[in-house]
Design goal:
This protein is of the alpha+beta class. The protein has eleven helices and eleven strands. Strands 1, 2, 3, 4, 5, 6 and 11 form a seven-stranded mixed beta sheet that branches. Strands 8-9-7-10 form a four-stranded antiparallel beta sheet. Helix 7 (212-231) runs antiparallel to helix 8. It starts with 7 loop residues before the first helix and ends with a strand.
Amino acid sequence: MSADVEAPSDAASHGRRLQCRAFAPGSVGNIGVGFDLLGHSIAGVRDVAVVRRIAQPEVRIVSIRGDVAGADTLPLEAARNTAGQALMSLRAALGLGHGFEVELEKGIPLGSGLGGSAASCVAALVAANALLDAPLPREALYGFALDGESVSSGSRHGDNVAPMLLGGVVMATATRMIPLAVPEWLHAVVVHPDQVLETRRARAVLADPYPLSLVVEQSSHLALFLTGLQRGDASLLREGLHDLLVEPRRAPLIPGFVEAKAAALDHGALGASISGAGPSTFAWFASKAEAEAAAPSMQAAFAQAGYGSRAYVTPVAGPRADVLSA
C-alpha cells in the first residue's frame, strides 16, 4: 500500500473504507440489431479492479496484470487508460479532495468484442464509488463510464458499459441506461476465437453511407426484436435478430464467422451475429440445453478456419458489476 493512503486513524474516525475490490462482467455489444444502442452482460468472463483511496488528489494506475495476452502493453498513464479516465472524470465532477490508486486484473481478452476496455472502466468505478463518503446510484456512474470507454473506442457509446453497470439487456442512449425485460429461458452462446480485431479497425469499415431503404428495414428488425423481448416471444426475437448494417461489412474481417453463425442456426438459434466489434460471435437460444448443444459446433467452425476458441454459455440476463468480498 502506498505511503500516502489516507491514515487508518482518519478512516476509523469517519467509518470510511480505504480499499475495495470489484468486478465487471464481459458483454455482448450491439446484439446485432442495436448498433451502439443495445448490449447484454455475460457470465463466465470478467475484469477485476482493486481501488484504494489515497490522500493525493490524483488518479494512479499502479499495475495491470492477468493471463490475457497484451495486458502488459496497456497504458498505466491514467488519462490514456479507460479506468483511469473514468476515475479522473468522477473526481472532477464531484470536486473530490482525495484521489484513487488502481490495480487492474484483466480477465477479458483484448480486442475480443467482449467489452474488455469497458469492464476495466466499470469495475474501477464501482470500486471507487464504494469508497466515497456518499456513494452514487448506478445511473449516476454512466457518464463517467462513457468518458472512460471513449479512451479506447474513440467515441462515447454505452452498449458495453451500461449492461455491465445494470446487468442483463440494456438500451444505452447518450444520456440514459434503460434496462429491458428478459425472459429467464433466454440463453446465449458466446464464442471467442483466438483472433484480435481492434475496435477502431472494425468501425472504419462502417464509414461509407447506407441506403435509406436498408436503414428502414433494419429499424423494422429492431422494433420486432424489442417487442419480442418485452413479450417474451421467441418468434418475434427470431424474426428481428438480423443485422443488415454492420454484420455484412465486418464479417470478412473474422475468419470462420460465417460458418460459426451457420452452425448456431443449424442448432435452432433464434439468431446470431458479431459480439461488439468482433471477433467474438454470439447466438441466442430458447433454452440453456439448446445453447449447450450448439456451442461445440460453433467452436468447430472456427477450428476449421484454423482458430482455437473459448465458448461461454450464459443467461442473456447476465450479472452486473459488483463489489467483491475481501
